[in-house]
Specification:
Layout lengths: L1 E2 L5 E2 L1 E3 L36 E8 L6 E4 L4 E3 L12 E4 L2 E4 L10 E4 L20 E4 L8 E4 L7 E4 L4 E4 L3 E5 L5 E10 L2 E9 L8
């Protein structure tokens, strides 16, 4: 169980889509991801965290999970192509942003090239990549998915053990409504992804 910056436990159960990479462990059965309502995108309600380390359980091979930085939680989205209520989409190892071929938002991503979380105090003003059709990792003919090129190689894959591990890189993300956040994948196992994140709700590039 993870704890947010206020000391409250965080548990998010959600479903992710598969990536085409064989994994050592069998997927777990998880429940509904929940969501949020009555929240204006980009606003910060009292008590809503703007940073944390969150375990997102994502074990389905059929559904995406949609993360909203402005609520610090998984968002229930019925029409992701038309909704602004999500910034980051996750389908096991596949990551998407609300942009390009995935959504109508202004989201995007750029790798900082650094693994030092504390050293990234400001996101760049430009250079963000938007979503496009990408090859699913795996043997030739595995198909395509709509995802963000900057986030497509966040992990290492060991073909001998079929283990997936994070490279630990820090990414800057532009959200669906043009705000900014930084993100790092801390850990991953069979669709259970721990993300470290910090969101800047005031529209500035500062993410310290």
């Amino acid at each position: 169980m993870l704890v947010n910056h206020l000391g409250a436990p965080i548990l998010i159960a959600a479903a992710f889509l598969g990536c085409g990479i064989p994994e050592k462990e069998e997927p777990l059965n998880v429940g509904d991801g929940g969501g949020h309502s009555d929240h204006q995108k980009g606003s910060i309600d009292a008590g809503v965290p703007t940073s944390g380390e969150t375990l997102v359980e994502a074990t389905s091979t059929a559904d995406w999970v949609y993360w909203d930085f402005s609520t610090g939680s998984v968002s229930t989205v019925t029409d992701p192509a038309a909704s602004l209520d999500w910034d980051l989409g996750i389908r096991r190892t596949q990551l998407a942003t609300n942009s390009g071929t995935s959504g109508k938002g202004s989201a995007g991503a750029v790798s900082t090239g650094s693994k030092d979380w504390a050293s990234i105090t400001q996101c760049p003003a430009d250079g963000y990549q938007v979503d496009a059709m990408l090859p699913i990792p795996g043997p030739p003919g595995s198909g395509e998915y709509s995802g963000n090129p900057a986030l497509s190689e966040w992990f290492n894959y060991d073909p001998a053990t079929h283990a997936v591990s994070s490279q630990g890189l820090v990414y800057c993300l532009r959200t669906a409504d043009g705000k900014h956040a930084k993100l790092s994948i801390v850990n991953y196992a069979s669709g259970q992804m721990t993300i470290r994140w910090r969101y800047q709700p005031d529209g500035s590039l500062a993410v310290q």
